[in-house]
Amino acid sequence: MDVRDSGGVTSAVPTPRSDAARADAEPETRARRGGRRSIAVALLLGAVGAALALLASRRAWAHGTASVAGGDLPLTATGSDVTGVPAALAIVGLAALVAVFAVRKAGRMLVSLLLALSGAGTVAAALLAADDSGALDEKAAEASGDTAARIGDLSHTGWPYAAAAAGALILIAGLLALTYGKSWPAMSGRYERDGAPRPRKAAPTVDPDRPEDLWKALDRGEDPTREA
User: What is the reported pLDDT for 140?
Assistant: First the structure.
């Protein structure tokens, strides 16, 4: 900071930052911005992916007909009928996404890896079950009373691929956590109890010559006549 005297008036003029100092600050600023952006993107993708996977598991994945008493009975298999893996892994991924901010260092890397694996598993399970007919065959056998009955007029919907896309979003969130997770903030431990007993506050001294102190002691359930 420069101090200049102009006409008897002293003024302080801040020294401009050098180009070197400005250049050193820019990478740190960019890193912070990149960290904040990666957190927002990972949270958004992970939450949307988990919600979409759970939604897709409740939708119809396949349609068909079963021959019952000379007629055709339409049957539908939802994602949960075909496979429960995408929904289960979506819940695991959502829990891992929250746990990323509760752990540090190696624990964060392990949780981030679990998040990425949940997404990859969701993609694989959804694609493997996209053309499955086992769930409808079981329903056809149950409806007709014939264990050898098979579903007819089989058709599939696009919801298995929606579940796969949801898994891809969770996978990307996990990869972001693995890449940038070290710079993400963690939950504060200021309010965590350490288990140590808290010291009890000493009871206020009661002055027997002051009636207000006697009444306050009685309100607290204390005996003001008892000696300390």
Answer: 85
Over the stretch 37-57, which tens digit does the pLDDT of each residue have? 888 899 999 999 999 999 999
Q: Two tokens at 205?
A: 């001294």
SS (H, E, C) 200-218: CCCCCCCCCCCHHHHHHHH
Q: How far apart are CA 68 and CA 140, in angstroms?
A: 9
Whole-number Å distance between alpha carbons of 202 and 149: 81
- Copy the structure tokens of residue 54: 């759970």
Four-residue CA torsion sign, 215, 218, 224, 228: negative
For the chain, first and last CA: distance in Å? 62
Of the candidates 211, 213, 189, 194, the one whose C-alpha atom is nearest the C-alpha of residue 203 is 213
91 or 37, which is more confident: 91
User: Positive or negative CA dihedral for 129, 92, 112, 167?
Assistant: positive
C-alpha 111/C-alpha 61 separation (Å) is: 31
